Amino acid sequence: MLNQRKLPQRDKDRALEDVLQEFGRCLQPNGPYGGFDECCLREESFRRLVLWAKEVGVFYQDLIPDRNGGREHDVTHDCLTKTWLKFTKPSSAGFTVDFDDEYPYIINALPQQYFARLLLHNEIFGDNISFVGVSGPEYKPRIITRQLDASGEPTNHNDILTLMTLLGFDRLNLDKPVGYLNSMAFMSGNVAVFDPHGANVIKTSDDLLIVIDCIPVILNNESIEYLKLFI
Asked: Which residues are paired to 86 by β-bridges?
């Protein structure tokens, strides 16, 4: 049964701010693991993530998700804490957004980019996603995070537009979606939010709109000026 096995205790979760700093040091040339060739950045990032997780006691060799999720995560429901454990796909850190000839497009994220994305998500949407650890096998690690359980119905574009406008964002009328088919995109200052759509923004029975899984990114000056063309 789902909760007859031992799941990671919630009081051992780490704040994403702390993870960004602690694991970030592991990627520095003067950090605990030394330098590495930039051409091996992806492989080395995951290798060092496993090493660091073992050192701080959050590597769970045999922990696997209970059910398949979407493109980025598989999941386990922890009914004792009323939270979801979200596992990235093996050897993956979800997605982020990059710019090719100025136009935004989805790419595979590095662990540090994934942590930064989730932290930004918390800040924008008032969420409390936390870092749980890393699960094995070592050669195909998954990053585990925890998110509060929320139940509701899928939203529509009008609901999402209302929410993002209240949060101070302008809609980006892009030529094609960045992320899920028919997803939307928004911008406020140097922050853009990509991929909100009906399945990852839900409406509760109290008409509260909750964002589950979007892709927020910090923009550089060039990207800001380009995206302003779509407002």
From this structure: 75, 145
Phi-psi region of 160 (alpha: psi -120 to 50; beta: other; left: phi over 0): alpha
The answer for residues whose C-beta is within 8 angstroms of residue 44's C-beta and 6 or more apart is 27, 36, 37
- Count CA atoms closer than 13 A to 90's CA, side-chain side: 9
Which residue type does 30 have? Answer: N
pLDDT for 212: 93
Question: Which H helix or E strand runs over 148?
Answer: strand 142-148
Judged by phi (left if over 0) then psi (alpha if -120 to 50, else beta), residue 221 lies in alpha
- Gyration radius of the chain's alpha carbons: 18
Residues found in the chain: 231
Q: What is the pLDDT of residues 19-41, one digit of tens each?
A: 999 999 999 999 899 988 888 99
Q: CA-CA distance, 98 to 219, in Å (whole number)?
A: 9
Q: Give pTM, 2 decimals.
A: 0.94
8 Å CB contact between 141 and 42:
no
Pairing verdict, β 142-148 and 73-78: unpaired
Q: Which residue blocks in 81-147 are alpha helix, DSSP H?
A: 111-125
Exposure b/e, 66-90, CB count within 10 A at least 16 = b = eeebeebbbbbbbeebebbbbbbbe
SS3 73: strand
Q: Are 121 and 16 in contact (CB under 8 A)?
A: no
The owner of tokens 């009323």 is 82
| Cα(143)–Cα(133) distance, integer angstroms | 6
